[in-house]
């Protein structure tokens, strides 16, 4: 298929187009509501709390309520491995990226580049594009992210050793708990106590008793409703946050622009190149959905926790705030472009 035909096919695919427009329109709605005073200055934070403590945990858990086969298990293990390896690679690569900056400025830029808003920004978009399968792989990919964010990220920004409170936050975070619980059920469902369920067509089958989508539909259904809130509420929160920020100072900061381009363009490109090499050499291969999930997750703006570290430990707090704003704007613009690029790569059959 010729390049122009691939682009045309991508841009006329209603699933892709509707996912992109849903993201952009709801973010713009949140922006408009904040500018018009419909949302006050606390709405963005309140929406994000609902997303992070209720909607995303439900979304992550529900994504694992599906049958497992050898192919999906291999894909899950591959993306888990890559989700750990890529952060080790970025820790080393980010050093030469910011060689001209020294001290706290370099540390802040590196941490903001390594850690994106994969949970709050990335997973809702992955869910909109790839559905439950994409969320499943995104949740597995995020395990490595959580490990390094609460260990390397904290130590680098605080200058202190790892504290017990961070280990507690790492493992008792609602999203982490939901992810590990869901992952456990998904992987070991064949070994858990089995119960007989009857499908709508009368066919009976044996499933693990913890497969709530089959054994406790009365509980799974409300969790599905909560999971459905993740994307729209996250996008409204992003729009409301953008609508509350003063743009002029941030836009005039060249360092923040340099960081934003690195975060949203260079980092995803590094992932594509390395994954292509690994695939062609047979070392590590991934499906198109896995690769697309990784690219979207890595094209996210600065992680809220990473920016909070900079502010809490007084390490270039203004730079972190400006970088968060500009990288969010850049990501909103680039995500649709990355989705088109991912589709082009899929047609070329690199992976």
Automatic annotation (TrEMBL):
Pfam families: Mem_trans. The chain crosses the membrane at residues 16-34, 46-65, 77-99, 111-130, 136-155, 171-192, 225-245, 257-278, 284-311, 323-345. Keywords: Cell membrane, Membrane, Transmembrane, Transmembrane helix, Transport. The keyword Protein biosynthesis does not apply. InterPro entries: Mem_transp_PIN-like. It is found in: Membrane. This is Permease. It comes from Bacillus chungangensis. The lineage of its organism: Bacteria, Bacillati, Bacillota, Bacilli, Bacillales.
């Amino acid at each position: 298929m010729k390049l122009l035909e691939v682009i045309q096919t991508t841009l006329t695919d209603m699933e892709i187009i509707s996912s992109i427009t849903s993201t952009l329109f709801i973010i713009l709605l949140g922006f408009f509501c904040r500018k018009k005073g419909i949302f006050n200055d606390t709405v963005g934070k309140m929406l994000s709390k609902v997303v992070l403590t209720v909607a995303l945990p439900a979304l992550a858990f529900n994504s694992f309520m599906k049958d497992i086969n050898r192919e999906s298990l291999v894909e899950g293990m591959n993306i888990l491995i890559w989700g750990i390896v890529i952060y080790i690679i970025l820790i080393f690569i980010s050093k030469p990226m910011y060689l001209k900056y020294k001290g706290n400025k370099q540390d802040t830029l590196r941490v903001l580049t390594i850690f994106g808003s994969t949970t709050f920004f990335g997973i809702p978009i992955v869910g909109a594009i790839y559905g439950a399968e994409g969320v499943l792989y995104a949740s597995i990919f995020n395990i490595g992210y959580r490990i390094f964010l609460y260990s390397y990220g904290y130590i680098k920004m605080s200058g202190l050793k790892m504290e017990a409170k961070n280990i507690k936050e790492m493992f008792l975070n609602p999203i982490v708990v939901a992810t590990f619980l869901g992952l456990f059920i998904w992987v070991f469902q064949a070994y858990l106590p089995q119960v007989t369920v009857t499908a709508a067509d009368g066919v009976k089958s044996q499933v693990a008793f913890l497969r709530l989508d089959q054994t406790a539909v009365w509980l799974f259904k409300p969790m599905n409703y909560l999971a459905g809130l993740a994307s729209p509420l996250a996008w409204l929160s992003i729009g409301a946050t953008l609508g509350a920020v003063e743009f002029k100072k941030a836009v005039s900061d060249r360092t923040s622009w340099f960081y934003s381009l690195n975060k949203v363009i260079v980092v995803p490109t590094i992932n594509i190149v390395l994954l292509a090499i690994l695939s062609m050499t047979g070392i590590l291969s991934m499906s198109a959905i896995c690769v697309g999930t990784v690219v979207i997750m890595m094209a996210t703006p600065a992680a809220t926790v990473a920016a909070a570290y900079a502010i809490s430990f007084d390490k270039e707090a203004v730079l972190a705030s400006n970088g968060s704003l500009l990288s969010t704007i850049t990501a909103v613009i680039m995500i649709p472009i990355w989705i088109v690029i991912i589709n082009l790569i899929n047609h070329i059959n690199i992976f």
